[in-house]
Amino acid sequence: MNIFLSHRIIDTNDVDIFIKEFIEITNAKYSFISEREHTGEWKDNVKKKIEKSDIVLFLIGKKSYESEPLKWEYETIKRLKKEIFIIQLTNNIDNIPNYIQKNQIISSAKQLTEKVKKMEDNRRNLLIEQYKIMVSSTEKVTEQRLKVNNLFFTVTTSLLSISILLGKSFGFTILALIGMIVLTILSILITFFWNKLIGSYGKLNTGKFELIAEIEDELKIDMFQREWDILTKKIKYKPNTKTETKIITLFRVFIWLLLSSEIIYLSYLLITKYC
User: Fold this and answer.
1) What CA–CA distances, in Å, run from 78 to 55, 71, 84, 105?
2) What is the pTM of this model?
3) What residue ranges define each of the domains in the chain, with the CATH number in brackets?
4) pLDDT digits over 3-37, tens only?
5) Mind listing the pLDDT tens digit for each residue in 47-74?
6) How would you list the strands of the sheet with 105-106, edge to edge?
7) What is the rounded CA–CA span in Å between residue 162 and residue 155?
8) CA dist 141 → 5, 26, 50, 135 (Å)
């Protein structure tokens, strides 16, 4: 976890003592970030460091209330909506900046440890709930893909069936064959939309799996990644999108052959009739 330390430079020694005590209590590995030089592009540097941080410790010393740069940092932290813990380094309550509410103040490393632990537990629980939602949404996408496949297959085969019935009903006359050709071309066009939609579902699931992987990194688990490695490396599993698009392509080839035969037969009838 990255922790940004916001404080006045004159309070550096007190800050270091507090952080040392905090580390000893938590016995955890945190990465502490701070900006101890208010020169040049310090505002840009501070903003970037705050953005990279997970939480911010806003440490108040004896003369923090006088610092305009510290006030700017506080406003930036609130604007970026970062989790902030306000630490009082001195017992003098009168030196608290007027933009800080007294009931927000933490006075000891032990108290900070309890609050950080509670925040981490809440964050982990939230990540678990998000993980469940994302996994559930991938299952819904898979169900929707099956419905789409069934729908497009039904529509396409229905058009081809109507085409054949039309030819049989009218004895495969010229007009009947023209109608058959129109329906067959329509079937081919539908397979392109079908293929595009399956590709979109594949990309949608890819995005969801990437989000799941990011959440697993936060939770320090790798179930989906392990499952994917086993499927692809040991079982030689092929992604559904590739399988489905291959089936659609083969189905389209069949329809093209059917269309070719209809056009050839229509040409034969026209030549026979007019030549």
Assistant:
1) 11, 11, 8, 16
2) 0.66
3) 2-107 (3.40.50.10140), 123-274 (no CATH)
4) 999 988 888 898 889 989 988 888 777 888 887 66
5) 999 999 989 999 988 888 888 888 999 9
6) 31-34, 2-6, 55-60, 83-88, 105-106
7) 11
8) 43, 42, 37, 10
